[in-house]
Write a structure and sequence with these properties.
single chain; alpha+beta; 3-stranded antiparallel sheet; about 30% helix
Length: about 60
């Protein structure tokens, strides 16, 4: 399985704010993935701390399958 996390932060976000927000997103989603069935084709929207949709994660078959 291949896991893809794509996050698009607004261009007005400073580098410091972007790093802080990405850290929060990674901690939150990393800690909550056990709530999802991660089979091929699984996906969900990713939200920032202001509850705005900023991306998504998804799974696809890996190189071997």
């Amino acid at each position: 399985m291949k896991f893809v996390l794509e996050v698009d932060l607004d261009d007005t976000t400073s580098d410091e704010e972007a790093a802080r927000e990405l850290g929060r997103i990674l901690r939150y989603w990393g800690g909550n993935l056990h709530h999802y069935a991660l089979g091929s084709g699984a996906a969900a929207a990713v939200h920032d701390s202001g509850y705005r949709e900023v991306g998504r994660w998804s799974t696809t078959p890996g190189a071997g399958g």
